[in-house]
Amino acid sequence: MAIGYTSGKKQTDVANHISFGLTKGELGAIVGINGIGKSTLLRTLGRLQPKLSGSVIINNKPIESLRSDELASLVSIVLTEPIASKNLTVSQLISLGRHPYTNWIGTLSAEDQSKILNAIEILELESLKNSKCYELSDGQLQKVMIARALAQDTEIILLDEPTTHLDLYHKVHILKLLQRIAHDTNKVVLYTTHEIDLAIQLCDKIVIMNKTNNTFGAPCELIESKSFEDLFPKDTITFNPESGSFKINK
Amino acid sequence: MQRSNTYLFPFLILFLVLLFCFVLNLSLGSVAIPFNETLKSLFGGTVENESWQYIIWNYRIPKAFTAILVGSGLSLSGLLMQTLFRNPLAGPFVLGISSGASLGAALLIMGSALFSHWFIFEVINDVSLAIASSIGSFLVLLAVITVASRVKDTMALLIIGLMFGSITAALVSVLSYFTDAERLQQYIFWAFGSVGNLSGLQLAVLTVFILAGIILSVISIKSLNALLLGENYALSLGVHLKKTRFIIIIATGLLAGAVTAFAGPIAFIGLAVPHLTRQIFNTTDHKILVPAVLVYGAILLLLCDLIAQLPSSSYVLPLNAITSVVGAPVVIWLLVRKKKMIF
């Protein structure tokens, strides 16, 4: 698949030759340097922007063939962009995840209510339920956005850099939560990240985006094939295969 | 999710206040009619003074209904614009609707003077003025929609609307430079804004437009709520962004366009009422906000009209001035109190 932007007749390729697949219950990460196209890839997968060529297939169906409400019940997205109205309460925001399932005016059914409560429970947000979003910290807001995606009850959850701006503890907390969501509820969870060492420790599959070639596989396979090593210029950062982490050259 | 019956009480209060303001608006004016006599006249009782009955039924009731329609229409279109543009300062006129209407009215009043040898008879009256300003606001709205279909970014659309406003304002000032004092005065009187003097037919047309705008808004309630998250999130929730944006813009055009055509460009109501409503109904849910701004807007305009009538005097102040004097401090007060404007 190739991704990028078209404006008029001009086409800007961001990345091409990307190929990977995830199955239910897997946590996947997309890693790569800044500006390589991780977010573009994620947005293309969620059909927020059209792909340039190739195909995105969900449950044996090409993504273009799905109606927008069908897609909304299959794929949910957590983006980096801030939400428009910070005046929403936490529970209102999470309820909006039920949008694809509610009637014309958005009445919540008993099933909707229970899915919302379930999402609140999984992310331990009971105490914040009635808080306004502008009162929350970055980490709390991130959890609320994940809860909203969870309430959308989709087979696939895409997250764009869910751990930026968080300290190490909260990074690990969120990632372990994503791992638990993927494994326990049998969903595909795919996120973009810069924390490659955390991704290696927690993910089932990793997509490495690199200018020359994009590789995909389980973390240990990728370490063996030395795929992480040419991710950064060798004179500044080297990859240590034993510890699965990067080191700064002195 | 808070249950909707927690909002029943504020709604009840708002309705009672609306009823009170309606009757108050009927009883006060250049001729003061006692409150109980007004009520008597409304419920078909015999009134001491024949002329009171006449004033109420032929003059004040149409005016009060117009005020309700104007206040509701402007407030609802303000709410729609604030959500669509994710901007607390957006109002019904950001799409150039009022400036378009002003241009239409200015062209008719002042432009006709320039080409007066073409006209044998007097063409300017309330009906032609309403038609001209409708056409003006519709044309500017159409231009904005055409540009909007090429622009993906809603913020850019907001700025484009403001630019169209600047262009039309410039054209109006060129026209006023070349026109004579009498015509200029006529234009200025239209720009003062007024809810009086609408014929039965005009009132019916206004009602139909406002109702159509309300219906379009109600079917957009669900999408409006999704838009609170931002356009990309709304898209990921299965909202047809293009269709929704189109419906909301048309609804605003109908609401604000019709109001401006019949009552002149009335400032600040569309901007201030949604914020005031959010103070009472502490929610962002459009299921609550849409009916609430309708009632609140009606109340505020009835009160503004009441002040404009300068009770018991024969003077009538420009409605536009009153709404600005009431509206602008409200916006300042909100900003100072909340430190920031949220919606």
Q: How is this fold's topology laid out?
A:
The complex is a heterodimer of chains A (250) and B (343).
Chain A: E1 3-7, E2 10-15, E3 27-31, H1 38-45, E4 57-58, E5 61-62, H2 68-72, E6 75-78, H3 90-95, H4 110-122, H5 138-151, E7 156-159, H6 168-184, E8 188-193, H7 196-202, E9 205-208, E10 215-217, H8 219-224, E11 237-240, E12 245-248
Parallel strand pairs in A: 3-8, 3-9, 6-7, 7-8
Antiparallel strand pairs in A: 1-2, 4-5, 9-10, 11-12
Helix pairs in contact in A: 4-5
Chain B: H1 8-27, H2 35-42, H3 50-84, H4 97-114, H5 126-150, H6 154-178, H7 181-192, H8 200-219, H9 221-227, H10 231-236, H11 241-263, H12 269-280, H13 286-308, H14 319-338
Query: Percent helix among the residues of chain A?
Result: 25-40%
The total of helices of chain B stands at 14
Based on helices, strands and strand pairing, what is the structural class of chain A? Answer: alpha/beta
Q: Portion of residues in helices of chain B?
A: over 70%
The biggest chain-chain interface is: A-B, 38 and 28 residues
The CATH homologous superfamily of the largest domain in chain A is termed P-loop containing nucleotide triphosphate hydrolases
The rounded Rg of chain B comes to 21 Å
Number of strands of chain B: 0
Q: Under the CATH scheme, which class of the largest domain in chain A?
A: Alpha Beta
How many discrete structural domains of chain B?
A: 1
Strand elements of chain A, count: 12
Largest sheet of chain B: none
Describe the structure.
- The complex is a heterodimer of chains A (250) and B (343).
- Chain A has 2 domains: 1-7 and 20-74 and 154-250, P-loop containing nucleotide triphosphate hydrolases (Rossmann fold), CATH 3.40.50; 86-153, no CATH class.
- In chain A, 30% of the residues lie in helices and 20% in strands.
- Chain A is built from 8 helices and 12 strands.
- In chain A, strand 9 and strand 10 form a beta hairpin.
- The longest helix of chain A has 17 residues, at 168-184.
- The radius of gyration of chain A is 19 Å and the shape is globular.
- Chain B is an all-alpha fold and 343 residues long.
- In chain B, 74% of the residues lie in helices and 0% in strands.
- Chain B has helices spanning 8-27, 35-42, 50-84, 97-114, 126-150, 154-178, 181-192, 200-219, 221-227, 231-236, 241-263, 269-280, 286-308, 319-338.
- Chain B starts with 7 loop residues before the first helix and ends in a 5-residue tail after the last helix.
- The chains are: A alpha/beta (250), B mainly alpha (343).
- The A-B interface holds A 43, 46, 48, 68-69, 71-73, 75-77, 79, 81-89, 91-93, 95-97, 99-100, 102, 104-106, 108, 113, 116, 134, 152 and B 1, 83, 86, 218-219, 221-222, 225-230, 232-233, 235-240, 278, 283-285, 287, 342-343.
